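Quick one, tokens below. Sequence please?
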């Protein structure tokens, strides 16, 4: 069932677990995420970036695909359909397209402009029943030139953005999008604590979830992180499973292949299974297994 993400993340914050946010790229990914959550009786956030949305044929295609899959697969757990790192225009488009949650990434704007645009989108989202995530400062990423520190947000800025009425907040605590450099210094728990103290119990979001050691993930959840974004992890296991399938000769694209391993439904299955297993692994790590009904009380 599609819902916005506000109640599920408030429940997660209050009960010290995190909800997994998994990026989708196509039909197989969407099914794997929904079924992985359903099998573990966990709330889940399935999300599309602007790039993935364009790849899949637009936000309406994504929204209809996820809604129809949710119905067809009889998914019993709460599912939020979220826009990842949205521009101002992408946020508006996703409200129209039928998403239940958006993220406005105004982190590249100067603080006052980020505040003005975030405010406007908070009103728009809430009028339509969507939840909204905002971001403070840039979180590090391979495209920005990686530093060993990652990006760290200023807690004062976090307080200002949180006060605008956003439902959850992404703030850099040393995390990085994509793969982490060998000399990475780890999550900055001091900053996380400060941000948590000044943002009035708002659920906090950890981006760049791939490559952070499990111990640090668990510690971050204990300290106020309620949503963890996972993308690269799923990409890695998908590619790995596909490479293995092909290396075993199962995809042999000739009529001699009596098992017809070239059939796209067979060819893509190992990738689908790998993502589903990764989603289940992360749900168990984040502690949201069997928390599907938790949101009803928040
Ligand atoms: Zn992100």
């Amino acid at each position: 069932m599609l819902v916005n993400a506000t109640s599920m993340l408030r429940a997660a914050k209050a009960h010290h677990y995190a909800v997994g946010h998994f990026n989708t790229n196509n039909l197989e990914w969407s099914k794997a995420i929904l079924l992985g959550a359903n099998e573990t009786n966990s709330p889940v956030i399935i999300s599309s970036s602007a790039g993935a949305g364009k790849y899949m044929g637009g936000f309406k295609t994504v929204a209809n695909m996820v809604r129809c899959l949710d119905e067809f697969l009889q998914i019993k757990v709460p599912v939020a359909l979220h826009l990842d790192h949205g521009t101002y225009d992408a946020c508006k488009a996703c409200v129209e397209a039928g998403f239940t949650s958006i993220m406005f990434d105004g982190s590249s704007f100067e603080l006052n402009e980020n505040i003005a645009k975030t405010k406007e989108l908070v009103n728009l989202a809430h009028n339509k029943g969507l939840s909204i995530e905002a971001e403070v400062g840039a979180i590090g990423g391979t495209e920005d030139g990686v530093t060993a520190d990652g990006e760290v947000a200023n807690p004062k800025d976090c307080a200002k953005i949180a006060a605008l009425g956003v439902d959850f907040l992404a703030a850099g605590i040393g995390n990085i999008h994509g793969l982490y450099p060998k000399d990475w210094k780890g999550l900055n728990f001091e900053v996380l604590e400060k941000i948590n103290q000044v943002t009035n119990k708002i659920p906090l979001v950890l981006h760049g979830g791939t490559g952070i050691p499990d111990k640090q993930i668990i510690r971050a959840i204990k300290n106020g992180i309620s949503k963890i974004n996972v993308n690269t992890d799923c990409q890695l296991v998908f590619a790995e499973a596909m490479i293995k399938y092909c290396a075993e000769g199962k995809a042999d694209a000739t009529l001699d292949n009596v098992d017809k391993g070239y059939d796209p439904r067979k060819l893509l299955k190992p990738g689908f299974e790998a993502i589903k297993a990764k989603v289940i692994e992360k749900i168990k790590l984040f502690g949201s297994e069997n928390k599907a009904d938790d949101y009803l009380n928040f």
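The beta strands are 19-23, 44-49, 79-86, 101-104, 131-136, 140-141, 168-171, 176-177, 204-206, 225-230. The pocket of zinc ion is lined by residues 85, 177, 207, 229 (CB under 6 Å).
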